[in-house]
Amino acid sequence: MDGIWQDLLQPGVPILEKILRPIIVYVFLIVGLRLAGKRELAQLNPFDLVVLLTISNTVQNAIIGNDNSVAGGLLGASTLLAVNWFVVRWTFHHPKVERLIEGTATVLIDGGQIDQAALAREFVTIDELSSAARRQGYLSLNDVERAVLEAGGSLTFAPKAETTRVRRHDEIIGRLDGLQQAIDAVRRDLGGRGPSAA
């Protein structure tokens, strides 16, 4: 029984190494994802998703080393959480460093015009952009006034003033107004019986 507790609680590598390993991997991943571009964070296609999913498995041994103890795992996880807590709070007070780490947003569509150079810089295809727009409720890129690939990898879209949804909404409101007028006319013809539904 003592052997079980020893395996569970006694780290297999020195504690300083258990702390340094997650810090080194954390810094590497921050720099690596920054250099890989916002598209890796956006997960725009299956290849990007596979890369992100396998990165965690790839760096697992680098974080834990030859240690399978619970205490070692908890120490590594605690180190990652502590480093992230510190970095988030530090960059909050240093916006220039935050922009350096996270990058800046990239405008992909402006004024309804697709910026092909921006798409090429971010390695985003028209099909991927169209798919993302459809997921957010746009029928096509023709309905998009502005599309931005945010620093965190998400895509945001702003509609044109005259999108298909707006036209459909206006059409429905127009029909409802016509029905209301017809109902009011029928009521007037019946001698004003019943209150107007206006």
Which terms would index this structure?
four-stranded antiparallel sheet; alpha+beta; CRO Repressor; 2 domains; 9% strand; single chain
Q: Care to describe what's here?
A:
With 198 residues, the chain is of the alpha+beta class. It has two domains: 2-102, no CATH class; 106-159, bsu07140 like domains (CRO Repressor). 65% of the residues lie in helices and 9% in strands. A hairpin with a 5-residue loop joins strand 3 and strand 4 (155-159). It is elongated and about 95 Å long.
Write the topology of this structure:
Elements: H1 2-9, H2 15-36, H3 38-42, H4 46-64, H5 70-92, H6 95-102, E1 106-110, E2 113-114, H7 116-122, H8 126-135, E3 144-149, E4 155-159, H9 164-189
Antiparallel strand pairs: 1-2, 1-3, 3-4
Q: What is the strand tally?
A: 4
Beta-strand share of residues: 5-15%
Compute the number of helices: 9
Helix fraction bin:
55-70%
Distance between the ends:
81 Å
Largest sheet: 4 strands, antiparallel
Number of domains: 2
Low-confidence stretches: none
- Oligomeric nature of the chains: single chain
Following the backbone from N to C, one meets helices and strands in this order, namely HHHHHHEEHHEEH
Largest sheet strand order: 2-1-3-4
- The outline comes out as elongated
Radius of gyration: 28 Å
Query: Helix- and strand-based class?
Result: alpha+beta
Average predicted confidence as pLDDT: 81
